[in-house]
Amino acid sequence: MRGTSYIRTFPAPVAASLALMAMSVVEKGLILITSPLYTRLLTQSEFGAVSVFISWQTLLGVVAMFCLHGGVFNNGMLDYEEDRDRYSWSLLVLSNIITLICFFALLALRPFLRTWFNLGLPLVCLMFAMFFTQPAFNFWMARQRFEYKYKLLAAVVIGSAFLSPLAAVACILAFPGHRVYARLFGGESVLICVYCAYYFYLGKKAGWKVKFSYWKQAFLFNLPLIPHYLSGYALNSADRIMIANFAGDSAAARYSVAYTVALAATVVWNAINASLIPYTYEKCRKGDYAAIYNITNPIVLIYACLCGGLILIVPELIMIMAPSSYYEGIFLVPPIVGGVFFMSLYSVFANVVYYYRRPRYVMYASVSAATLNVILNYIFIPRFGYMAAAYTTLFCYIVQAALDYLALKKVTKASVCNMRLLLAFCAAMVAVSLFSGTLYHHNLLRYSLIAFSVLAALLMRHRIVGAILAVRESN
Fold first, then answer.
1. CB atoms within 10 A of CB 46
2. How far is the C-alpha of 273 from the C-alpha of 347, rounded, in Å?
3. Alpha carbon distance 198, 214 (integer Å)
4. DSSP string, 49-76
């Protein structure tokens, strides 16, 4: 109660930002908590098959749902303030039409895509049922965010995040002979029911009336952004699909568990970046680039130390996350976490580029990095095994960060970051990513480093808290 009353003292945008950040942390935290259940209830091959389904769902969803709940929807909330209900419903119908076109196109092409796309027809139908209904919830959620209505949104998201894995586990126990289907249909059916409720809610609010003039504007706005969205997800998801095809579902399962461990670092950075974005925009508006790198440098250093600390405790995390058969995956985590660190640099650079409304430069970087990742995986996974995917991803995130920095220089024509210092952080993180795996054979040295890191964090706690509060207080 005290925490809730404390949040109420903030302005609506700040209160909503804090609440939604906490919601995101809880939602992603549940993924970390439930993964140990799935790795023990499913075989490695079954867990890998589930991971491949989710990867395909992530990739195909970009095209099949057309990402209409993003920037174009927020623009519509501003441009059509008096007609938000019909705007939401019109975009939902447009999304459904695109989904149906993609569904029938995929059915026609399935015989020619079996080498790469080997999901059974029931799973394809489940996936597209999600694509058909999920946009309704996405639009409602985006409108709640836009209007700073976070209470019901947080309750629904966190409630669904609890119920979905509970239903999945119950179905796995009830149908042990069909565990992959039980896991997916059990977990996704709960979400589909939630999405359907909002589907009919949006339709009823709009009187089931579509305004076709909204379609052209939304379609043309999002069409050039689809490659950017697709490449961003491809950099995260293509690895597991290619590993499953080249090395089997068991290898994809070990890679997926390693990626889930690295998710902890992603959750932390997303929380940091949520506060960094408004600070960056405010300083860009004033042309105060020195203030940006005075804040970002210590924050990036703190984040690099957190990533390094996560890498040091990987063996213990893997033992919690999965049975001993997954233990080989510990050597995947350092390069994956290194890639997550360079993804944070992409955010630091891209935040400024987005402020100046030059998203095409970010798109060029993400498409180039994703394309390079697929090519390198195609070359190195068959030759060196599935572990090569972690190192190709690290390299591609480095490339993406470098390209985004060049975009930053082109857009601002000024020094926004202290690159000498950032390059030192980057060199240290690359070294940690490449060589820290050797520490997993020397526990005494590793535990000594952990103790030293904890002691250093305690001694520097005031500087760490000060860097974070400086961003908070500037928003």
1. 22
2. 7
3. 20
4. HHHHHHHHHHHHHHHHSTTTTSHHHHHH
How far apart, in whole angstroms, are the C-alpha atoms of residue 295 and residue 417? Answer: 10
Asked which of 130-139, 183-192, 337-346, 388-397 is least confident by mean pLDDT, the reply is: 337-346
192: tokens are 């589909």
Tokens at 430, concatenated: 């690359």
Cβ atoms within 10 Å, residue 438: 12
Spell out the residues 6+ positions from residue 325 whose beta carbon is closer than 8 angstroms to its own: 44
The structure's pTM equals 0.84
Give, in order, the Cα–Cα distances in Å from 81 to each of 14, 152, 209, 263, 268: 22, 21, 17, 37, 34
Cβ distance 136 to 73 under 8 Å?
Answer: no
Instruction: Please give the distance of CA 367 from its chain centroid, rounded to a whole number.
Output: 17
User: Count of H helices and E strands in the chain?
Assistant: 19, 0
Rounded alpha-carbon distances, angstroms, from residue 117 to 81, 114, 149, 368, 377: 42, 5, 40, 23, 17
Helix (H) or strand (E) holding 150: none
